[in-house]
Amino acid sequence: MFRKEMDLLDEKLVKLLLERMALSERIAVYKKETGLAVHDPDREKALIDKRVRAAETELKENAIREIYEVILKSSRAVQHDLIKCDKE
After folding, report:
1. 17 vs 88 pLDDT, higher one
2. Pick from 78, 77, 55: which is nearest to 66 by CA?
């Protein structure tokens, strides 16, 4: 019972993460065209803080912070790779 529910949530998460990565690729193109830096620490801090505030407990806050740090790191890697490939 719980496994099926968790599997469904995981499938949704993967789909959303793939959509986010696709958007990150489009953002990389925009950043390259406009000369914007891939990494904006202030923007990332604000984004993480906003998501953490939505958590209900400190334990959940820590988990959300860690999850978003990984998501943002992955997004930066995708953007760096795309921008680097375009330069070669």
Report:
1. 17
2. 55
